[in-house]
Amino acid sequence: MEIKSPKQGSAISGLPLSRVKIIMKSSPDVDHISPDALQAMSKATEMFVSYLSMKAHDHANKRSIEYKNLADVVNNDDVFGFLQEVIPHKITVREYWKLRNSQQRSEDESSDDQGSGDG
């Protein structure tokens, strides 16, 4: 990884500052981003991705990381709980429809139980 000076428009980390700034500004609560905050966020993001990758690599027990390894780490470690909707376990279409149908049946039974108490 090549280290560029801030004058060249990139953080000391490998992430482009312009992209990090765009993501930070996408929050409606953010009006201004100081250069120091931008540098700090860029470095923190790099460290987080490195940590997640390291955990997935440890879980994989091999030289390469697959999506399944990331999903396992995210879904089994409370630290990464906020990513569960972003990195879910993969399921087949058949499994999806089976799950959806069983949830629908549960909702139907629940609404039938509530309606039968009237009389």
TrEMBL record:
Gene Ontology process terms (BP): chromatin remodeling; DNA-templated DNA replication
Pfam families: CBFD_NFYB_HMF (PF00808)
Keyword field contains Ribonucleoprotein: no
UniProt-annotated stretches for the region Disordered: 100-119
GO cellular component: CHRAC
Major localization listed first in the record, in broad terms: nucleus
Transmembrane stretches, start-end: none
Residue span(s) of domain Transcription factor CBF/NF-Y/archaeal histone: 15-64
Keywords (A to Z) from UniProt: Acetylation, Coiled coil, DNA-binding, Nucleotidyltransferase, Nucleus, Phosphoprotein, Transferase
MF terms in GO: DNA binding; nucleotidyltransferase activity; protein heterodimerization activity
Localization, UniProt: Nucleus
Highest taxon of the lineage: Eukaryota
InterPro entries per record: CBFA_NFYB_domain, Histone-fold, Transcr_DNA_Rep_Reg
Assembly description: Heterodimer with POLE3; binds to DNA. Component of the CHRAC ISWI chromatin remodeling complex at least composed of SMARCA5/SNF2H, BAZ1A/ACF1, CHRAC1 and POLE3; the complex preferentially binds DNA through the CHRAC1-POLE3 heterodimer and possesses ATP-dependent nucleosome-remodeling activity. Within the complex, the heterodimer with POLE3 interacts with SMARCA5/SNF2H; the interaction is direct and enhances nucleosome sliding activity by the SMARCA5/SNF2H and BAZ1A/ACF1 interaction. Within the complex, the heterodimer with POLE3 interacts with BAZ1A/ACF1; the interactions are direct.
Job description of the protein: Forms a complex with DNA polymerase epsilon subunit POLE3 and binds naked DNA, which is then incorporated into chromatin, aided by the nucleosome remodeling activity of ISWI/SNF2H and ACF1. Does not enhance nucleosome sliding activity of the ACF-5 ISWI chromatin remodeling complex.
Name the UniProt record assigns to this protein: Chromatin accessibility complex protein 1
Source species: Phallusia mammillata
Organism taxonomic ancestry: Eukaryota, Metazoa, Chordata, Tunicata, Ascidiacea
